[in-house]
Amino acid sequence: MAQTWLVVGLGNPGPDYERTRHNIGRRALAEVERRASATPKRHGRAQALVAESRVIGGPKVVTAFPTSWMNRSGGPVAQLMDFYGVDPEHVIVLHDELDLPLGTVRLKQGGGHGGHNGMRDIIAARGGDVLRVRLGVGRPPGRQDPADFVLKPFAKAEQEEAELLVQLGADAVERIVAEGFTEAQQRIHAPS
């Protein structure tokens, strides 16, 4: 039987944060769920909304949005990994990335948190071997504080690029599950 995949979209809960840069991982996760016709529900043992689906002819995929604050994502992720028996190499985390230009998607396995507090907490709870779909939201202009920048919505002129980024993030998850991490990484990182 194929290994279950756990796909986690990072963000902060509540309508005030829904359209912010920091929640682009959550938005991409919602697109994965929409494509799979998966309806998230509260999980009984973890602070998260989860949905279960299957890739056609393939493995079970559990999508999860921790309902804790971003910087407290590690506990819910660890609980879901234990509950579903998922190994770190079958965990995909979608998150915003300041160090990538807006609209850029990069895949990464393992490594440090790079200053991302959600990843910092997941690494503290479970180690850094999870797979990541890093969704570029760009750097703040001038001397704007990065923490303030990620908690603001995309500018009107960036909305189309942000919507495309959501689609590309969902595409990346589908490729990883269907083709494997290395193949997906080669395709996504290939020059256009």
From TrEMBL:
For tRNA, which residues are the binding ones? Y17, N71, N117
Locate the site labelled Discriminates between blocked and unblocked aminoacyl-tRNA: N12
Output the superkingdom of the source species.
Bacteria
Site Stabilizes the basic form of H active site to accept a proton: list residues: D96
- The record's principal subcellular location, in a coarse class, is cytoplasm
Its recorded reaction(s) are:
an N-acyl-L-alpha-aminoacyl-tRNA + H2O = an N-acyl-L-amino acid + a tRNA + H(+)
Regions that span the bilayer: none
The record's keywords, sorted A to Z, are:
Cytoplasm, Hydrolase, RNA-binding, tRNA-binding
- Give the E.C. number(s): 3.1.1.29
Q: Which residues form the active site?
A: H22 (proton acceptor)
The UniProt record lists the keyword rRNA processing: no
Q: Does the keyword Hydrolase apply?
A: yes
Annotated GO molecular function terms are: hydrolase activity
Q: Where in the cell is it found?
A: Cytoplasm
Please describe what this protein does.
Hydrolyzes ribosome-free peptidyl-tRNAs (with 1 or more amino acids incorporated), which drop off the ribosome during protein synthesis, or as a result of ribosome stalling.
Q: How does it assemble?
A: Monomer.
Similarity comment: Belongs to the PTH family.
Q: Which HAMAP family match?
A: Pept_tRNA_hydro_bact (MF_00083)
NCBIfam families recorded for this chain? pth
The name this protein carries in UniProt is: Peptidyl-tRNA hydrolase
Q: What is the name of the gene encoding this protein?
A: pth
